[in-house]
Amino acid sequence: MPSIGILKELKDNKVFRVALLFLFLILFLVTRLPRIKDDIVNPDGTNWHYRSEQFISGVKHKQFEKTYQHYHPGTTLMWVSGVGVEVFKQVSGVKSYNSENFLTFDLVAKVSVIFVQLILSIFLIFLFSKLVGFYKSFLTVSIFTFEPWFLANSRLYHLDVLLTLLIFISIIFAYINMKEPSFKNSLLTGLFISLSFLTKSIALGLLIFVIFCTSVYLFRAGKKEKIFSSVGYIFLSFMFFTFLLLPALWVNPKYCLSNMISETGKAGIERGHEQIIFGEKTNDGGIFFYPLAILLKVSPFMIIGSLLGFYYFVNRKIKDKKSSDFGVYLSLFIFGYLIGMTIPSKKIDRYILVLFPFLAYSSVVGYKFLFESLKSKSQKNIFKITVPLMLIVFWFVPCFTLFPWYFVYTSPLFGSPCNANKVIGQKPFGVGIPDLEKLIRNRYGDPKLGFYDTQPMKAIYPNSKVFDVRNYGPSSYNLLVLGINEDMPKKALESEKYYFRKDYSLWINGLEYWRIYIREDKVVEYEN
Predict the structure, then answer these.
(1) What are phi and psi of 489, to 5 degrees?
(2) pTM for this structure?
(3) Phi then psi dihedrals of residue 98, to 5 deg
(4) Which tens digit of pLDDT belongs to each residue from 309-323?
(5) What is the pLDDT of residues 480-505, one digit of tens each?
């Protein structure tokens, strides 16, 4: 048929591929840049501003011990945003942070991270195309890039999206090196595993996984003589780049490395992280936390597609037990990652982001498998209509209706954000803080404020007027501001002198996200 010939010619056309990449670039920027200056001031981001500033100061003044400040350790984020902010300081002449200019510094940091995410995403398209072809690669990266929840986290000044991209690139290089061992492939594998580890120390598990799989594969393939050199080059490359990019290791390697590992264990196993599951507060979300988080935060389009793809991978492995294609390899890593993240008590929904590239690739394979399984022309025509319709309903509609509050996205499978909030309680996480600050100034003037998490508001409001309600009594503040799922503090409830009257609420995505209470004096009746 002539149409088939035209379609094939279009697919082979380099200009068409360039046009797709240009479209990806435009959509990436359009979904990331608008309103990133004043949508979210996340509490972790305020910490990373300080750490990045100290990191750059340590590099500039050769105080290298200052470049290690946290067990994560977030080195890649500090290099990216720290350099961007330092350039801004030199150009603008603004040398230090304050509540008036914080949002501008935050914008510079966010844009720096988004720019690097864009570079990594385009690089990933070309790299992955070596394994699966350009169009599968392009579709895979596009699917997870424009998933509402991934998009939301991509706009944050945080580590998780950066980690996700670096891990997926590492896995691809590791797979290429496993199939075709070489010094170059081992070097690049070690480099990106190092970058992953320097983003979050939990990526040390990735190094173990790669070394194990590479050794097993080469042994089974009868290439025992290449195991030592291939694994050795990966490990040496990992160590070289880790020491090169984290200057604190130059002066105190033992402390830094041991602290990263020990503190990661303590944070995950001993301290946990408070979550609200089905209305109950807990420091351990249990084994069902991440399955629930996936149902809540992944679009039905990608869930359905990934299930189809996973079925395809398993079915192929059963039929061909020697099969070691990329889908099987990636599946092994993902299951290992899920088990590894489920064991610690600390569980956070953002940690499922690492799964998104796998879910996206599985979706591409799954929908292709389903299309090829359809026998009649009418069935295939229905498929061609249904899939784009799903994209419109589950992607484009949320992109318009949620703007700019993508971080509060929940799957339509739960009917409404309120229903989803009953399953896993939404965290305030600084969402809408700039809007809240403007609302408070316009409605109440310049009052003293009580918060549970003071960091986001302190970044853009006078520090001396923001108080932690867990440490300070109600006499310290005029307004009590409670985020979603936050209870009235004990000190306020037990106060004999004051009570708090709810005066106003800031609603976001159908949720009463911020509640503002005015402090009023209690009327005391005296007996005669």
Answers:
(1) -65, 150
(2) 0.94
(3) -155, 175
(4) 988 888 876 776 655
(5) 999 999 999 999 999 999 999 999 99
